[in-house]
Design goal:
By secondary structure, the chain is an alpha/beta fold. Helices cover about 35% and strands about 25% of the residues. The chain folds into two domains: about 50 residues, Urease, subunit C, domain 1; about 260 residues, TIM Barrel, CATH 3.20.20. It is globular.
Length: about 325
């Protein structure tokens, strides 16, 4: 058999690293893997002793949060440079979120005109909107829905109250799509930030304690409990604590369709260790915490989370370099 393309190099296979490996592609699909002499092919790429890896999927990006739909061009170009061939983009577009079929059509058109890699799309539901649009969005091809338990922006990134969250979860079941949550309790976080401001604790290192772990766990627990009650597939989009990973695992063991993800920064940065060096550049929410890196890697190894994502956002760094971290 002749193939369209053969790529030679080093491969990581289930039984270990294999030198002099080749991967044969036909019709855009990996058709065969072997060692030493490659089969006939129209094209051959030999990378020597470099590793040949599949294109990665980044399960959480925000390509359009700053530049709007124009953000797809630089975001997808950067993704390819990092070996990512598919991004899964969140619905919190600038200036309006993806919560209608018309906005979905506009976003797809933008992807077709300027994206350098494959893109999957989340949709959302606005407060007070109801669930009537969800079926049409699912039919048009969105892969999931995302909501938030805390407001980041009143229009683009609003908070959904628990009663509306419950109805969204019910409506998602016949559609067969997961519903994901940005998992922070708004009342706890806002009260904590107010106390920090009043005390003058507004430096970058105060971002972590201003958004305490209990705020994340409280929002996560409520969402997973609503998912268990409805039979919906609930997904936590960025777990920053080992307890959060264990919570997803325990709900799944109880029969819930519960999954979660860890973002790559939680596996590499520590607030106590890195904040003096990086300052406000470390600002993400939920925050980078202290002393959890090893335990989070253990959760990954134990399959307590489904995948690792970037949560990449296209905001310029100046957006973080403000006098107050809040």
């Amino acid at each position: 058999m002749s193939y369209d393309l053969v790529v030679k190099g080093r491969c990581v296979l289930p039984n270990g690293i294999q030198d002099d490996c080749w991967i044969a592609v036909k019709g855009g699909i990996v058709a065969a893997i072997g060692q030493f002499d490659p089969p006939p092919a129209v094209g051959l790429i030999d990378v020597g002793r470099d590793f040949v890896v599949p294109g990665l999927v980044d399960g959480q990006t925000h390509a359009t949060s700053y530049k709007g739909l124009k953000g797809f061009e630089p975001t997808t170009r950067s993704a390819l440079a990092g070996g990512i061939t598919t991004i899964v983009d969140m619905p919190y577009d600038n200036p309006d979120p993806l919560n209608t079929s018309d906005r979905l059509a506009a976003k797809i058109e933008a992807i077709q005109s300027c994206s350098h890699c494959d893109v999957a799309l989340y949709a959302t539901v606005a407060p007070g909107q109801g669930v009537a649009e969800m079926a049409a969005l699912a039919q048009a091809g969105v892969c999931a829905f995302k909501i938030s338990s805390i407001e980041s922006h009143p229009v683009r990134f609003p908070r959904l109250p628990a009663d509306e969250t419950l109805e969204i979860l019910k409506a998602s079941v016949p559609l067969g799509l997961p519903v994901s949550l940005h998992n922070e309790d708004q009342e706890i976080v806002r009260a904590s930030i107010a106390r920090h401001r009043e005390a003058g604790l507004t430096a970058p290192r105060h971002h972590e304690p201003s958004r305490p772990e209990v705020a994340e766990l409280s929002a996560t627990a409520q969402f997973l409990e609503l998912g268990l009650a409805t039979g919906a597939h609930t997904h936590i989009v960025h777990i920053s604590t080992p307890k959060g990973c264990a919570m997803v695992r325990d709900y799944a063991a109880r029969g819930a369709r519960a999954t979660g993800e860890i973002c790559v920064h939680y596996l590499h940065f520590d607030n106590d260790r890195d904040i003096d060096r990086l300052g406000a550049r470390m600002k993400v929410s939920p925050p980078l915490r202290s002393g959890y890196i090893d335990a989070l890697w253990q959760a990954v190894e134990a399959d307590e989370v489904s995948f690792i994502s970037s949560d990449h956002s296209s905001w310029p760094v100046d957006n973080k370099l403000t006098a107050s971290i809040f």
